[in-house]
Amino acid sequence: MLKSIHKEEMKMKNRVLAFLIMALLSMFLAGGCSDKEDKVAEETISRIDFPSELHKTYGEYVKADARILVPDAIKGEKIHKVKAALIDMDVELIKNKTEEYTQNQFEQFQILEQKDYQGITVYDHEYVDKEDGGFSITYSENQNSILYFPKDMTFVLSAFRLANDPDYNGDLFLNGEEFSFASRQDAFLNIKKYLEEIGVKIGEDYRCYYLDYETMEQEEKKYDADAGLGKKVWSESDNAYYFAINQEVESIPVYVPLFGIYNEDIDYNAPIQIMYKASGIGFIQTGNLYETEETEEYVNVIDIGEIFNSINEKYSMLISEEVVTVTQMKLCWIPNHDSDELILAWSIRGALSSGTEVQMFY
Fold first, then answer.
1. Predicted model pTM
2. Nearest-angstrom CA–CA distance, 309 and 302
3. pLDDT classification of 227: cutoffs 50, 70, 90
4. Which of 55, 39, 68, 53 is nearest to 331 (CA)?
5. CA-CA distance, 159 to 359, in Å (whole number)?
6. How many CB atoms lie within 10 A of CB 215?
7. Distance between CA atoms of residues 240 and 220, nearest Å
8. Would you tell me the crossing angle of helices 184-197 and 91-102 to the nearest 10 degrees?
């Protein structure tokens, strides 16, 4: 069983490889933010002042029929520049606090030291619990992550599927009833307390899924109908809240590609994912976690018209007659690998005229 759980844990960590080509393609289409820094200085506004919706055509290849998502708390305000650094991973503190909030005990399994593709040493502290569940703390100078993967989590992830593919069923769990063991807000506050005690600050930017055991049982049977490897007995003890969480600064979410490469801004790739049950925290998966500091300077915000003109220019260079319709623009911070400042950017979602969904960051 240990080998099986360890295999699942490593599978979660190594999802990077499975989507590398997709991520590189996304980076090509989006153009990234680093090549926008000069234009940001040219097309700026001093305060956050955007419409809630935009309906306009830009050139031959881009149409806006979009919601503009900007936190109410910053409308009309100037935004300070923000410095960010990866939190220090205090392994013993994180282990002790995770034991406290999961009501579990972990024994050291192994400590690995490996080189990443840049030749930087990555440290991986791996533990097991008494039921062969896995827990690990991974860090280097340019990454960090926490993974707590109990034995039964394999069944939960067969029943509850957030990946953007035909098996997605997250909508079934979005509008459930609160569970008797805790309200959604109390569960979130306990998670927030745990994160703060290990040095991670979050705001209120999250989405919650209500994982009721009856729906999970039905969905797992659909998914594993032929394999016959599903959970034998589901009960109320399996009820759980599942939170997809972003850190935030000045009420603006910090978007961090999961494990540094999952660029699609969906809950499946949320940098902090935690499940909360009657017994406490029941699953943890985090990507890079940051500590942030606002500076005295203000950030320049790229003009929306400049963004759409740039998108139109990019699509005009492709050998295609497709038009992209932008349906949503969300203001966010993203890490800048060339400096310690976060970049204020737009997460843009839309679709091509063929129906293919697209996402970009500017």
1. 0.83
2. 12
3. low
4. 68
5. 27
6. 17
7. 15
8. 160
